[in-house]
Design a protein that fits this description.
Length: about 450
């Protein structure tokens, strides 16, 4: 039975020192992130024992609680409401502490990744929905079914991707302190059909050239121009001049420079991905599948979101996601081996039972933080399983059969409705399934044989 979000929020806040100890509340697709004034006030053991909490990650003042997709949105809303209600309106010391903690933990690299992720993560639900519809439409077209419906499905599935640059511009301006609609207006230049009439450097532009990368940089430039104008334009003229200059200057720079440069970068990304898989697919899959769990653990996987989005825009699918998804398969295999080997550890087996369904559907954090990472060796053997699954999928790419995903976000079994490739969705699904089975098997075998110290193996019941 699903836990009540209000009760969960109350229980969480009680175990982190109360609402007064919470400086900020945020969440991603699976985790609730709390920044605490006094991290020592949080009782990690009691937090882990709460029903519905699949894992706890402490990183200085930040306490991350793995709750799973869907649930995290509801619990975050309840926690945020309680924190706001329990916080005095005038909280200057708290605000100063929050700013101090933010500066202490905001390295330039981490900050850049976080801000880029904040631009693209809100787009993931639409990418998933449109990707599923695109896959369904492809099946209907290939089967020759419902010919009167498929054009409508194609329009619904494709419209968002056709205008994704506008959404990227809007979110970029919002994230970096500009006016969102002005960022969207400048980014819209990238996808406007009329750019085909613009000639520069001896060639005509193509609508969409530069894609999301061009839109991101264009909106960043618009934000900088807007801030420059706000500090210099007299108040009486600000309402007219600032929006005009903010759209005009970055718009012209986008047309006569950014679209060409971003288009070249985006084209290079697609060419490099295809070349890498065609020439060294097995090795590339082994490296990507083996290293993805550490990237997730460090939060560095967010840097791949713009690359996935660019590939989907260019080719209709990203060939990298199925390879990276194999890391989750290795994690599942490792967890099953731990479940069998440590039959005496009731608490750990309970954690695995609750986290395994999420792991099968591609949500790996509960198993990472609740099982394999605390044990140490099973985390490494899970990476070995991911590497094996990635090598399996990459090997077929070397033979000329690419497997891709029409959207980002899901993995594991949840990725099947989004699979496609140059040989069609059925072949892609078969290869992906083979990769998952390989990851499960190698992750299980490596963990069962090498995932435990000898002393612990000796004390494990036969």
């Amino acid at each position: 039975m699903r836990n009540d979000p209000a009760s969960t929020a109350t229980a969480l806040l009680t175990r982190v020192g109360g609402p007064a100890n919470v400086i900020s509340v945020a969440h991603c697709m699976t985790r609730l992130r709390l920044t605490l004034a006094d991290p020592a006030a949080a009782n990690e053991a009691e937090l882990r024992a709460l029903p519905g909490v699949l894992g706890v990650v402490s990183d200085g003042p930040t306490c991350q609680l793995v709750l799973g997709p869907g649930v995290v949105d509801e619990v975050t809303a309840e926690v945020a409401a309680r924190v706001a209600a329990g916080r005095p309106e005038e909280d200057a010391p708290g605000a100063r502490l929050k700013e101090e903690l933010r500066r202490r933990n905001a390295t330039p690299f981490k900050t850049a990744l976080r801000r880029v992720a904040n631009v693209f993560v809100p787009l993931i639900p639409a990418l998933i929905g449109c990707g599923v519809l695109a896959g369904l439409n492809g099946l209907l077209v290939n089967a020759g079914w419902l010919p009167g419906l498929t054009p409508a499905l194609a329009a619904v599935a494709s419209a968002f991707l056709a205008l994704i640059a506008v959404f990227v511009g809007h979110h970029t301006a919002r994230e970096f302190g500009g006016t969102p609609v002005l960022g969207a207006a400048v980014a819209a230049v990238v996808v406007y059909p009329g750019v085909a009439k613009v000639t520069a450097f001896g060639t005509h532009l193509a609508p969409g050239q530069g894609g999301v990368l061009g839109a991101l940089v264009a909106a960043l430039l618009a934000t900088r121009v807007e801030k420059w104008c706000r500090g210099r334009v007299p108040g009486a003229l600000d309402v007219l001049l600032t929006p005009t200059v903010t759209v005009l200057v970055p718009g012209l720079v986008t047309l006569y420079g950014l679209m060409y440069a971003a288009g070249a970068v985006a084209s290079a990304i697609g060419t490099a991905a295809n070349w890498l898989l065609a020439t060294a697919g097995a090795a590339a899959g082994l490296v990507l599948g083996g290293l993805f769990l550490p990237l997730v653990m460090l939060g560095l996987h967010q840097a791949l979101i713009p690359i996935h989005t660019t590939l989907i825009e260019q080719q209709g699918y990203t060939v990298l996601l199925p390879l990276l998804a194999m890391a989750g398969a290795g994690q599942v295999g490792a967890a099953l081996a731990v479940y069998i080997r440590l039959r005496h550890d009731v608490s750990l087996r309970t954690t695995i039972r609750s986290a395994l369904p999420a792991g099968l559907l591609g949500v790996g954090e509960p198993l990472i933080y609740g099982v394999s990472l605390p044990l140490g060796r099973p985390f490494l053997t899970a990476c070995a399983g991911g590497a094996a699954g990635g090598a399996f999928v990459g090997f077929f790419a070397m033979l000329g059969t690419r497997v891709g995903a029409t959207a980002i976000g899901p993995s594991g079994w949840a990725l099947f409705p989004l699979l496609t490739g140059n040989r069609g969705p059925a072949v892609a699904a078969a290869i992906y399934a083979g990769g998952l089975l390989t990851g499960y098997a190698v992750g299980f075998a490596a963990t069962y044989l090498f995932g435990f110290p000898r002393r612990r193996r000796a004390t494990t019941p036969a």
